[in-house]
Amino acid sequence: MARIRPAHFVHVVYRTRRFAEMVRWYEAVLGATVRAQTPALAFLSYDDEHHRVALLNLDVVHPDRSHDGGHGAVGVDHVAYTYASAHDLLENYAALKAQGITPYWCIHHGVTMSMYYADPDGNQMELQVDACATPEESAAFMLGPRFALNPVGVEYDPDALVAKLRAGASEAELLTREADLPISPIRRAMAPA
User: Which helix (H) or strand (E) holds 136?
Assistant: First the structure.
């Protein structure tokens, strides 16, 4: 089987304790606009992508700096790569799993169906596929009631989706988020030993 590669590098997420200042900075430097914002998260883009930069407000997510397990540090949280289809994302998952490489978090964010991995140094990356057909559909989702109800997403079983894929499920069936609840806790990779 030919190796499945990402179609594009899509975004970076930063952890910050200067949330409002960082939003203004990326608006100024990249000419980005805020696509969606909650007290804990801001999603900014300078083109058709739903977000190119996301900011995680640590003062909301990890306000107690003494017991944050290392996640309260500012800096890069993760980088993201997108695949051309759910088929590619799921077949890539299966190929990596066969090599002993598995995600620590599989979540359907609504705008993306994502798998989070950590490299041997603990750097985090998101492998994803867009769940919305158009940039307009992504924007509408991020401004709509489903995102307001659950801006994080719902966890899913990738093996169940691989089984559906191999049983002939369509792309639309694979990408449909069946429910908006429960809201997943934000998972983190374990630091390497």
Answer: helix 135-142
Q: How far apart are CA 69 and CA 65, in angstroms?
A: 9
pLDDT digits (tens, 9 = 90+) for 96-123: 999 999 999 999 999 999 999 998 888 8
CATH code of domain 8-175: 3.10.180.10
Distance of CA 16 to the CA centre of its chain: 17
User: How much of the chain, in percent, has pLDDT values that exceed 90?
Assistant: 79
Domains of the chain, by residue range, sit at: 8-175
Please return the burial class of 187, using the count of CB atoms within 10 Å of its CB with bins 0-12, 13-18 and 19+: middle
Burial class (CB within 10 angstroms; exposed 0-12, middle 13-18, buried 19+) of 106: buried
Residue partners of 156: CB distance under 8 A and separation at least 6:
106, 107, 108, 113
The residues near 91 (Cβ < 8 Å, ≥ 6 apart) are: 1, 4, 162, 165
pTM as predicted: 0.84
